[in-house]
Design a protein that fits this description.
Layout: E1 14-18, H1 22-34, E2 38-42, H2 45-54, E3 59-63, H3 71-79, E4 89-93, E5 108-111, H4 116-126
Parallel strand pairs: 1-2, 1-3, 3-4, 4-5
Helix pairs in contact: 2-3
Organism: Herbaspirillum aquaticum
Domain Response regulatory: 14-127
Protein name: Response regulator
Length: 131
């Protein structure tokens, strides 16, 4: 047995993925975990808000069009929480023309389909440096 211990899970960045399409959640979660991230998921904004209050993420990736609470409403709700103003938020949609993004405080908007390499690069760019 070697003296090298596995990396601490808490040291890995925690990403919150929010989408009402289970295939997207499953795909993103699997790929992001393979790239060294911890992942929590939610099927709509209200679920995501509750999960974020239980376990604060390092970054949020959210669809815009979802039932219960959409991505724009989630973004506003997260921003109102302690620490929410500095939380990196990526919003995604296949129909950006259906959303008024001008009043949203998200960090980045990506049009679906999102290329995974681009998503990885943007996550790395937006995440705060780890100490």
């Amino acid at each position: 047995m070697s003296g090298v211990s596995p990396p601490q899970q808490a040291a890995l960045p925690l990403l919150l993925i929010v989408d009402d399409e289970i295939d997207i959640i499953d795909t993103y979660a699997m790929l992001l975990e393979l790239h060294g991230y911890r992942v929590i998921t939610a099927g709509h904004g209200a679920d995501a808000l509750a999960k974020a209050q239980q376990q604060w993420p390092d970054l949020v990736i959210s669809d815009c069009m979802m039932p219960v609470m959409n991505g724009l409403e989630l973004c506003a709700a997260l921003r109102s929480l302690p620490g929410g103003t500095t939380l990196p938020i990526i919003l995604c949609s296949g129909a950006p023309e259906r959303h008024d993004l001008s009043q949203s405080s998200h960090n980045l908007f990506l049009r679906k389909p999102v290329f995974f390499e681009q998503l990885l690069a943007e996550i790395a760019r937006l995440l705060p440096p780890r100490s």
